[in-house]
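Subject: design request, 545 residues
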């Protein structure tokens, strides 16, 4: 969803101008914030831009709805959203699919149409908005004819359940759970409306279930967009149907749903108290889960960078909480977690350098550092550094250069090795980019060399003006895949005092606590040697290659 936020400035323009071919925008939201991002509901963007939003609940629906989304987009001449959530996006299942169609070779079409592809004047924008609203209404008709929104009416006066997205998958199990705990609801008294598309709102189907049921449950994760429409429609129809959802306090706007949470709505519909076993949803076994702080991979070069920053701050006579170090998105943000506790902030892509400047401009007199990954710097960090140069801000920028866009799937970035740049792409020299911006105080260091990197960090922090430190070492995962040999690290058992300094400072997953000493898991260790560099007893040694 954060990527959609960045793209929306252009996307709303596409929606107004319309499209000639099919355009589908896939977005994945994260109810329950499993990945630690904002728990936003991207349906709000669809509402704001009058765009269709389909919500698959299964792997098969992901496939089927994607195909339909392209067909629908071509039919209405506008982009279409396909919204997943974490539970759907990370699902695995068998899939029925059709034979793949090969792309048709076509000559590119140049079409100059000022009224369609610009926003040059109110008349143009108003006409585009009118066309967008018409395409939205046309989409509702197509979806209804297609029968994607599945309506099943039970006995009149019974309980209705309207479910969108992944919530559709929990209805059967929720009824079983509720009846097991004493709800006593007959299946024939249940009406269901399982929505493939929440936008446009399926007015006819919503009206049908409202007129058939005395009480209606609205099951949608995060924001009550659908529920508000149900209230609005009930008001217009002059109906006093009881509506259960977020707005009556039954469900929360936080987190993901499960069958236990849906079952709570069934108890509310019957007027019975929710059993204690269901009040937290389905959480059985969660109390047995071990705490697992998220840290960098074994051998990750960012580990050495944050160890060096912490050591430099200490050697300069500052306390850790006196020196602000801003963070950015990607693998680099793991510097906020134990054992580093280095980073103070994470906001959005490229925000670390501007935020650091903001604190300096606000009057912070002690050193301020900004950290950012190489991919993020190329994508969104350069403008912030330009501003720092223009304003001559006393700021240390640390670019953690591992050569890959690691956290989101090991994509190449402009600075990735030339061997991995697809023809005709060329590797961009990060050092030359920084120098070309006008940075004169620039250091290049290897984060596997803790002493040298610490010394450079100290020098940079203690120097006035705009300073940039590039900590360069390839991502450990990619280096392992390429079979890069950094040598072997081993513990000399008789020298180990089990002081755990190596574990407490590096936090490396390859270090394992035994009864009387630490040992190294060779299956994880890549030979970076950072643990050996912090051992005071020379109990961890790196073999010379």
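Subject: RE: design request

Done. Sequence follows.
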């Amino acid at each position: 969803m954060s990527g959609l936020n960045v793209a929306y400035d252009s996307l709303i323009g596409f929606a107004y101008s319309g499209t000639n071919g099919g355009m589908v925008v896939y977005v994945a939201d994260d109810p329950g914030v499993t990945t630690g991002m904002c728990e936003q509901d991207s349906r709000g963007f669809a509402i704001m831009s009058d765009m269709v939003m389909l919500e698959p609940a299964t792997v098969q629906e992901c496939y089927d709805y994607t195909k339909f989304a392209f067909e629908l987009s071509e039919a209405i001449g506008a982009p279409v959203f396909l919204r997943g959530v974490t539970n759907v996006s990370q699902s695995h299942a068998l899939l029925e699919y059709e034979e793949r169609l090969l792309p048709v070779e076509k000559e590119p079409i140049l079409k100059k149409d000022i009224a369609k592809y610009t926003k040059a004047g109110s008349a143009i924008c108003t006409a585009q908005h009118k066309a967008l609203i018409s395409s939205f209404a046309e989409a509702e008709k197509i979806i209804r004819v297609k029968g994607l929104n599945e309506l099943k009416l039970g006995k009149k006066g019974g309980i209705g359940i309207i479910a969108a997205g992944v919530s559709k998958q929990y209805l059967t199990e929720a009824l079983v759970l509720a009846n097991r705990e004493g709800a006593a609801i007959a299946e024939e008294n249940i009406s269901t409306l399982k929505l493939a598309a929440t936008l446009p709102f399926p007015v006819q189907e919503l009206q049908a279930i409202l007129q058939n049921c005395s009480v209606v449950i609205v099951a949608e994760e995060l924001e009550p967009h659908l529920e508000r429409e149900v209230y609005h429609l009930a008001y217009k129809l002059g109906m006093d149907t009881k509506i259960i959802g977020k707005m009556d306090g039954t469900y929360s706007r936080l987190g993901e749903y499960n069958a236990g949470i849906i079952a709570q709505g069934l108890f509310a519909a019957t007027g019975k108290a929710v059993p204690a076993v269901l009040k937290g949803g389905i959480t059985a076994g969660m109390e047995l889960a071990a705490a697992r702080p998220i840290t960098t991979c074994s051998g990750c070069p960012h580990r050495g960078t944050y160890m060096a920053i912490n050591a430099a701050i200490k050697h300069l006579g500052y306390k850790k909480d006196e020196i602000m170090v801003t963070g950015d998105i990607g693998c680099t943000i793991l510097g906020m977690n134990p054992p580093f506790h280095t980073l103070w902030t994470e906001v959005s892509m490229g925000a670390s350098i501007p935020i650091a400047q903001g604190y300096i401009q606000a009057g912070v007199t002690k050193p301020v550092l900004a950290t950012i990954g190489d991919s993020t710097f190329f994508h969104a960090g350069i403008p912030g550094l330009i501003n720092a140069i223009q304003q001559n801000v006393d700021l240390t920028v640390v670019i953690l250069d591992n050569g890959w866009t690691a956290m989101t799937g090991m994509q190449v970035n402009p600075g990735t090795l030339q061997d991995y740049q697809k023809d005709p792409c060329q590797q961009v020299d990060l050092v030359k980019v920084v120098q070309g911006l006008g940075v004169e105080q620039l250091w290049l260091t290897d984060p596997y060399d803790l002493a040298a990197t610490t010394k450079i960090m100290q020098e940079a922090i203690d120097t006035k003006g705009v300073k940039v430190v590039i900590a360069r070492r390839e991502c450990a995962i990619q280096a392992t895949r390429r079979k890069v040999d950094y040598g072997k690290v081993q513990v000399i058992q008789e020298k180990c005092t089990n002081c755990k300094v190596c574990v407490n400072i590096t936090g490396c997953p390859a270090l394992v606590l035994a009864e009387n000493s630490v040992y190294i898991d060779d299956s994880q260790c890549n030979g970076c040697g950072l643990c050996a560099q912090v051992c005071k007893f020379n109990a961890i040694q790196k073999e010379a290659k």
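The chain is about 35% helix and 15% strand.
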